[in-house]
Amino acid sequence: MLKAAGQTHVGRQRQHNEDSYLVEPKAHLFLVADGMGGHAAGEIASRIAVDSISEFILHTKEDDGTWPHAYDEHYKRTTNRLMAAVRLANTRVLEAMRKDARLRGMGTTVVACLADDETMSFAHVGDSRAYLIRSGQLSRITNDHSWVFEQVQAGMLTEAEAEKHPLRNVITRALGGALQVTPDASEIEMRAGDLFLLCSDGLTGMVPEEEILRLVTQCDGDVDRACKQLIDAANERGGLDNVTAILVKAE
Questions:
Q1: Which architecture does CATH list for 2-250?
Q2: How far is the first Cα of the chain from the last one, in angstroms, to the nearest whole number?
Q3: Burial of 70 by CB count in 10 Å (0-12 exposed, 13-18 middle, 19+ buried)?
């Protein structure tokens, strides 16, 4: 059984909220998308991503292997469905740009998870993140598709330097950025009490990971209150970006 909550806020500096999210406990589907692009195009891109991913998952069956993308034998069928949905969302964002020149240049990140009876599957593109909180410890499930993360991986920047770097918001992979997109995927065997956090960089750019862990654990499993506390903390620290958080608890 999964218990979940999600909240979003425009923040204290932006005029429009370009984040979109979905909490669909009955389908065991949860996702956050952080759009980019002028004239509210980012809001459109993130909404297209959320709508197309949810439509695909809700209208394909677990045993349906007819979707138009290659099947990766390294992952479970649930994970393959999620990856296929993310690739479809990329196609839909590109189609929207082709139909309306005003939307050209828009894009969106996405981080999504889909559960079966025992496994939580993840797929992501961009720098929106997924975390696992288990036994009082927080661990990052996703790696940012960003310039600074690549520099950290190459040993050119430390984690501390990356957090303050002026190019920390430059992402290297997004829906709408290329004809084909490859989402990163992972699978985690769920345990009772596990908490999964999906969030946009409006949270992680404002609130350190140790503070995220403290705020969530002090709510003692109340996912609604924890989401509110995370968003309040981001805004109290400046609210420089839209901020979105989803918490999913395995019970």
A1: 4-Layer Sandwich (3.60)
A2: 5
A3: exposed
